[in-house]
Design brief:
The protein contains eight helices and eight strands; from the N terminus they run ααααββαββαββαβαβ. The protein is α+β, with helices and mostly antiparallel strands and 242 residues long. The strands form two sheets. Strands 3-1-2-8 form a four-stranded antiparallel β-sheet. It has a four-stranded antiparallel β-sheet with strand order 5-6-4-7, with helices on both faces. Strand 5 (165-168) and strand 6 (172-177) form a beta hairpin. The longest helix is centred in the first third of the chain and has 19 residues, at 21-39.
């Protein structure tokens, strides 16, 4: 058991999102629209849509809101076409930041992301400049209070489902998968009634950087806040120890 708490970080993010619930619902709504456009409106035949629905439920998105989003995406021929784009760059003290966006205007999004980096004493770099410092993994977080299980038995269940790694933390279990195995593992655990606090494909830093200078902390927070306020931004990954 490692001594730190991933779940505490998840809860902190969720509390922040609760204050900005409209933002997280906008983010997931766009993901639903893209998934439906790519693979159709039937979750039974669209694993990407199933994954987005699982993410929506983990973020307490009401079922009727999810269904409305799917119907709207399936039935609206004039629906906005969102384009996925990724930006990489450096924050204060050389920290690594990856920004994923879904946008209908790449020029606007690029300008906003660049502005956020600049205002926080950072800069946008070239593709690949920091992504090599991260591993793309499927990540599932399970709260121990919500799921009473024997750790060894749970580990075996996860590994048999195809998980790559399993770790027991202070107050949660973390399951990692290869990106291509994520949907299969998530659905296998879902069938076993495992409740998930977080379930998504993410970018995990290989090493973390601790910011000790107060101004660096302030500038980094400024970048994060500006990116968080941008509706085009879907995900932000960084290697700062929180």
């Amino acid at each position: 058991m490692s001594g730190h708490s991933k779940f505490a970080n998840i809860k902190h993010k969720k509390e922040k999102n609760d204050a900005k619930r409209g933002k997280i619902f906008t983010v997931i709504g766009r993901e639903i629209a893209v998934a439906v456009k790519e693979g159709g409106a039937d979750p039974g035949n669209n694993s990407k849509l199933r994954d987005v629905i699982a993410k929506a439920k983990a973020n307490n998105m009401p079922n009727d809101t999810i269904e409305r989003g799917i119907k709207k995406a399936a039935g609206d021929v004039d629906a906005v076409n969102y384009v996925a784009c990724t930006y990489e760059g450096y924050g204060p003290n050389g920290t690594a930041i990856i920004v994923e966006a879904l946008t209908d205007n790449k020029n606007r999004t690029a300008s906003n992301v660049r502005n956020a980096f600049t205002k926080g004493n950072g800069n946008v770099g070239t593709t690949g400049c920091v992504s090599y410092m991260f591993d793309q993994k499927g990540q599932i977080i399970v709260d121990k209070e919500a799921y009473d299980a024997d750790a060894d038995e749970f580990m075996m269940m996860a590994l048999e489902a195809g998980a790559e790694d399993f770790s027991e933390e202070e107050d949660c279990y973390e399951i990692l998968t290869l990106p291509e195995d994520f949907s299969v593992v998530r659905e296998a655990l879902e069938k076993e009634g495992v409740p998930m606090v977080q379930a998504e494909v993410t970018m995990i830093p290989q090493t973390y950087v601790e910011l000790t200078d107060e101004n660096d902390k302030k500038m980094f927070a400024r970048i994060m806040d500006m990116l968080d306020e941008d509706d085009d931004v879907q995900n932000v990954y960084h290697n700062v120890e929180e």
